[in-house]
């Protein structure tokens, strides 16, 4: 029986059934990513607070369990615990009208957007790569990037808890040259880190200010581990152009000062995803145009 389902589950690019399965899985993963985006920074802050208290011989301020599983999700306004029916990806948001069932306070639109976006992008990757090893490997790449994007937008921080596993996973995926040869992946990780590290120090020496955080170095290193060193110029170019356009728009429209800090992680993540899917074609098109 398994042999009869194999052509559907391990299908070539452009197959509809695996893409639909990926979309359904993406909805569920997107719901979990919302939890990661909200809770991981809080977990890290609580861990830091407890460590500082321990170093000062004080009682830890946080003793109750708080992780990605417990306590149960609840409305931050009234404490109403979210039931299973209220936690169905996208559908529950529409059913509740975007409001808490108990106190009617608004639920951020980000929650259904993350769920729907994860579903659509997961289906797109499986449609593009197929449901073989490359397609299955591309899914966690996407999910890590969505979590990092959400956290960076909320906190302007890219946690090592996500960037470093993403880097090591990229090297493991490329052990058999899934996307690039392992040598290119290792060099991509090294050059990716050094590229933004150099920009950081040049900017700091020139202006006396920090232009980006260390998390950006590590995220580009992770992208290099997945995409190889040859894709780094494309990733940097795409992220810089989009970041500059969006940054200028924010400064003009919202009247922010020129020293307003804009998280760079989301643009790196978007550029990395584009490079994974279309990188080779974009590079070839550019070389043909330049020739």
Structure description:
The protein contains ten helices and no strands. With 291 residues, the protein is an all-alpha fold. The chain is globular. Mean pLDDT is 89; it is low at 1-5.
Give a topology summary.
Elements: H1 2-9, H2 16-55, H3 91-96, H4 110-129, H5 133-155, H6 160-173, H7 182-207, H8 214-227, H9 232-253, H10 265-290
SSE order: HHHHHHHHHH
Averaged pLDDT = 89
Q: For the terminal residues, how far apart are their CA atoms?
A: 53 Å
Which regions have little confidence, pLDDT < 50, spanning 5+ residues?
A: 1-5
Helical/strand content category: mainly alpha
Q: What radius of gyration results from the CA coordinates?
A: 21 Å
Total DSSP E strands: 0
Strand content: under 5%
Envelope shape: globular
Major pleated sheet: none
Tally of separate helices: 10
Bin the helical content. Answer: 55-70%
Provide keyphrases for this structure:
mainly alpha; 10 helices; 291 residues
Describe, in short, the structure shown.
The protein has 10 helices and no strands. By secondary structure, it is mainly alpha-helical. α6 (about 160-175) packs parallel to α8 and α7 (about 180-205) runs antiparallel to α8 (about 215-225).
């Amino acid at each position: 029986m398994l042999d009869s389902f194999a052509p559907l589950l391990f299908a070539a690019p452009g197959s509809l059934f695996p893409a639909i399965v990926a979309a359904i899985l993406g909805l569920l993963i997107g719901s979990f990513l919302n939890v990661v985006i909200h809770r991981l920074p809080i977990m890290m802050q609580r861990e830091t607070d407890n460590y500082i208290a321990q170093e000062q011989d004080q009682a830890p301020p946080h003793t109750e369990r708080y992780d990605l599983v417990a306590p149960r999700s609840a409305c931050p306004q009234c404490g109403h615990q979210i039931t299973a029916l209220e936690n169905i990806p996208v559908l529950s948001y529409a059913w509740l009208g975007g409001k808490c069932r108990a106190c009617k306070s608004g639920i951020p639109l980000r929650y259904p957007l993350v769920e729907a976006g994860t579903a659509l992008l997961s289906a797109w990757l499986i449609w593009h790569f197929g449901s073989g090893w490359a397609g299955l490997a591309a899914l966690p790449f996407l999910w890590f990037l969505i979590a990092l994007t959400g956290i960076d937008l909320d906190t302007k921080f890219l946690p090592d808890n996500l960037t470093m596993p993403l880097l090591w996973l990229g090297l493991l995926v490329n052990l058999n040259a899934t996307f690039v040869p392992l040598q290119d992946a290792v060099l991509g990780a090294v050059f990716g880190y050094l590229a933004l590290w150099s920009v950081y120090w040049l900017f700091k020496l020139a202006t006396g200010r920090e232009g980006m955080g260390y998390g950006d170095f590590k995220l580009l290193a992770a992208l290099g581990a997945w995409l190889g060193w040859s894709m780094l110029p494309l990733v940097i170019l795409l992220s810089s152009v989009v970041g500059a356009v969006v940054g200028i728009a924010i400064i003009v429209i919202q009247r922010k000062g020129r020293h307003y800090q804009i998280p760079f992680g989301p643009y790196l993540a978007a550029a990395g995803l584009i490079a994974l899917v279309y990188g080779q074609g974009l590079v070839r098109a550019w070389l043909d145009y330049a020739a």
